[in-house]
Amino acid sequence: MESAKTPAQVYEEVFVPAIFMPCTRQLLDVARPRPGERVLDLACGTGVVARMVAPLVGSEGRVAGLDLRPGMLAVASSLPAPEGAPVEWVEGDALALPFEDGTFDLVLCQQGIQFFPDQTKAMSEMCRVLAPGGRAGLAVWRGFDRNEFFGAMTEVEMRHLADLGMTYEDLAQPFLFGDPEWLHGLLAGAGFGAVDVEPRSLEARFPADGFVENAEFAYSAVVPEFVDDPGAFAAFVDVVDQEMAELVARHRDGDEIAFPLHLNVAAATA
Ligand SMILES: C[S@@+](CC[C@H](N)C(=O)[O-])C[C@H]1O[C@@H](n2cnc3c(N)ncnc32)[C@H](O)[C@@H]1O
What we know:
Shape: globular
CATH superfamily of the domain at 7-143 and 172-206 and 257-269: Vaccinia Virus protein VP39
Distance between the termini: 45 Å
Bound molecules: S-adenosylmethionine
């Protein structure tokens, strides 16, 4: 058990290189940040998007990373500052952004909107803090029909989830908003124009050693209730680990587990 580390530290060490860094490459390829722009990384987690966009907007630009969870921001602010724009870490809620109207030229949100309790409100906040003509870029995983590895893992987890007092929605949240029409409608409904939603893919590569334990623990950085009962959580990890053995073996590539992941990347103009 990675108990000496916080969930956000394991998220940064394991999940960020495995899936979120490749995801950011896809997002930035669509959003195309420009030198001098003021960028908000909304629901920044440990800050991978903020760190990767800072060199692209350069020292004339500015970057803010905002997240609800202090544990995520503690990791974000502990990492070395990137080249380029200065990065400010802000604790706050996507539903009530602590910024003046028109503060940013580009708002990026990577795998965050799935967790917002009111996505319509978050989109209108995103629109409000953008300067006229500013741009939004969102990355959202597609559903389990396209993301079979995590779909199969969720089926295993579901068999034991009741022991943690959690529901399917708690666990499957990242993959429940994969419909491109829904994403398009969410942005258009908030007043964004020139909305475009593009399917993209990447290859996930996790260290095979400790995969299940790390994955479950890191998820509690986003859904902390997952580890409310440490005994039940440890038992859950053990049984999921056993039942995942065959799936993990099938995707094993040397020291790693490799599988494809599919996402939608949306771009829109305020
Ligand atoms: C899957 S993580 C993605 C983090 C980061 N964007 C990345 O790519 O690694 C989802 C993030 O959304 C944040 N979050 C959830 N609800 C939020 C809200 N209402 N306002 C701001 N952040 C929120 C969580 O704390 C978490 O850091």
